[in-house]
């Protein structure tokens, strides 16, 4: 089944404790992206990747890191999480362009930083 | 900088009534615009894109460059249309991968 998976789905952590949220897709998509969803602010893009080893900042990259060493995986790293990073995080992937550029979203990861 | 504004957080209509979800954008180049929808307990999914000029589930959206708008319309709302709707803009040029979403509008269609 074609899908985007994220792990963990729920995470409660404490300020400063490094964490990684994994994202994996099995559709051979070139493009992958991370978003956070907050009430009243909608979805905001954190980072995106056009292909392996190619990443770029979205609108809210501060406090986050990403890497794209393989086409299928795009982990989101919080080196020193803070309470303002408490949010619902979505990963998405798509083909690069044209009429196949529909983004497929993961189920979301709910992160709480205490 | 690109920006997407959805002025209505909440929108309520009755079944069979017309519905319009507003989306305004700010972008200096030639935008690509999308509507995404999230039904209850489902993942966010693409509803339609302006390039395709298609009608999905009875919804249409026309890009109005003069008014910088991309409003989503449906002539007769159904209860199953109740969902969160996001308007999104994709940049061009060297920032092609950058996607900006609006704040979202929760549509409720009453029986």
* Continuous helix count of chain B: 0
The geometry of chain B reads as globular
Helix/sheet category of chain B? mainly beta
Number of strands of chain A: 11
User: Which segments of chain B are poorly predicted (pLDDT under 50) over 5 or more consecutive residues?
Assistant: none
- Helix percent band of chain A: under 10%
**Structural class assignment of chain A:** mainly beta
Quaternary state of this entry equals heterodimer
Sequence of secondary-structure elements of chain A: EEEEEEEEEEE
Q: Hey, roughly how much beta strand do the residues of chain B contain?
A: 35-45%
Strand content of chain A: over 45%
- Name the pair of protein chains with the most residues at their interface, and give those residue counts: A-B, 27 and 22 residues
Radius of gyration of chain A: 13 Å
From the alpha-carbon coordinates, what is the Rg of chain B to the nearest angstrom?
A: 14 Å
Helix content of chain B: under 10%
Tell me, rounded to a whole number, the average pLDDT of chain B: 91
Attribute tags:
heterodimer; A: 114 residues; mainly beta; 7-stranded mixed beta sheet; 4-stranded antiparallel beta sheet; 0% helix; 50% strand; globular; B: 111 residues; 6-stranded mixed beta sheet; 3-stranded antiparallel beta sheet; 11 strands
What report would you give on this structure?
The complex is a heterodimer of chains A (114) and B (111). Chain A is mainly beta. Chain A contains no helices and eleven strands. Chain A has strands at residues 4-7, 10-13, 19-25, 31-38, 42-51, 54-57, 65-66, 76-78, 87-94, 104-105, 109-113. Chain A starts with a strand and ends with a strand. In chain A, 36% of the residues are buried. Chain B is mainly β and 111 residues long. Chain B is 0% helix and 43% strand. Chain B contains no helices and eleven strands. Chain B has strands at residues 3-5, 10-14, 19-21, 24-26, 32-38, 45-49, 60-61, 72-74, 83-90, 99-101, 105-110. In chain B, strands 2, 5, 6, 9, 10 and 11 form a six-stranded mixed sheet that branches. In chain B, strands 3-8-7 form a three-stranded antiparallel sheet, with no helix packed on it. Chain B is globular and about 45 Å long. The model of chain B has no long low-confidence stretch (mean pLDDT 91). The chains are: A mainly beta (114), B mainly beta (111). Chains A and B meet through β4, β5 and β10 of A and β6 and β10 of B.
